[in-house]
Amino acid sequence: MLSGFKDFILRGNIVTMAVGLAVGSAFTAVVTGFSTAFITPLIGLATRSSGDFSTATFKAEGVVFPYGKFIAAAIAFLITAAVLYFLVVVPMMKVQARLDRDKPVDIKAALRDCPHCYSQVPGIATRCAHCTSALVPDPKALELAGLPAQR
User: Fold this and answer.
1) Checking DSSP bridges between strand 120-122 and strand 111-113, what pairing results, if any?
2) Are 35 and 52 in contact (CB under 8 A)?
3) d(CA 108, CA 42)
4) 95/35 Cα distance (integer angstroms)
5) How many CB atoms lie within 10 A of CB 31?
6) 3-class SS of residue 122
7) Is the distance from CB of 145 to CB of 107 less than 8 angstroms?
8) What is the Cα–Cα distance from 16 to 105, expressed in whole angstroms?
9) Which residues have C-beta within 8 Å of that of residue 123, sequence separation ≥ 6?
10) pLDDT tens digits, one per residue of 69-88
11) What dihedral do alpha carbons 65, 67, 69, 72 form, nearest 10°?
């Protein structure tokens, strides 16, 4: 029983997730500090307010609504999302595209619809596997596959 638990904990994806959560919480603290130290005062200067609107509230029938906390959290979220997108996602997509460029093309991955029965068939197919109708292969799929054009 304990060996199964040990295997579960030591599995790679659990450790990776724990490291990701630790780094994510540290990154959140950095972004929140940046937002509080620089972005909030800049917005305050632009709107001619005191610069710290995280304490801003309004009252309605004796109930206090601290809308400034929401604005500060929304700004921190937007900064976090932008940094993650431009510094992690975009570079990783470029690396993935560079790695995929050298992979062989799967000629069955390019699918199209049969004009007779509307089932999906490979782009290089000359007959539909479902209704056996004769098909004209897609020239682009043939070129990608490195096959000669049909006569």
Assistant:
1) antiparallel
2) no
3) 54
4) 30
5) 21
6) strand
7) yes
8) 31
9) 107, 110, 111, 112, 137, 138, 140, 141, 142
10) 888 788 878 887 887 888 88
11) 180
139's CB contacts (< 8 A; 6+ apart) are 149
Show Cβ contacts of residue 64 under 8 Å, excluding neighbours closer than 6 positions: 57, 58
Greatest alpha-carbon pair distance for the chain in Å reads: 83
Radius of gyration of the chain from its Cα atoms, rounded to whole angstroms: 28
* Helix intervals (H) in 35-137: 40-46, 67-84, 90-101
Q: Which residues touch 115 (CB under 8 Å, ≥6 apart)?
A: 133, 135
d(CA 3, CA 18): 20
State whether residue 6 is helix, strand or coil: helix
Q: What is the pLDDT of residues 117-132, one digit of tens each?
A: 999 998 888 889 889 9
CA distances from 96 to 20, 50, 56, 110 (A): 20, 46, 45, 20
Instruction: Give how far the C-alpha of residue 92 lies from the chain's centroid of Cα atoms, to the nearest Å.
Output: 10
Structure pTM? Answer: 0.51
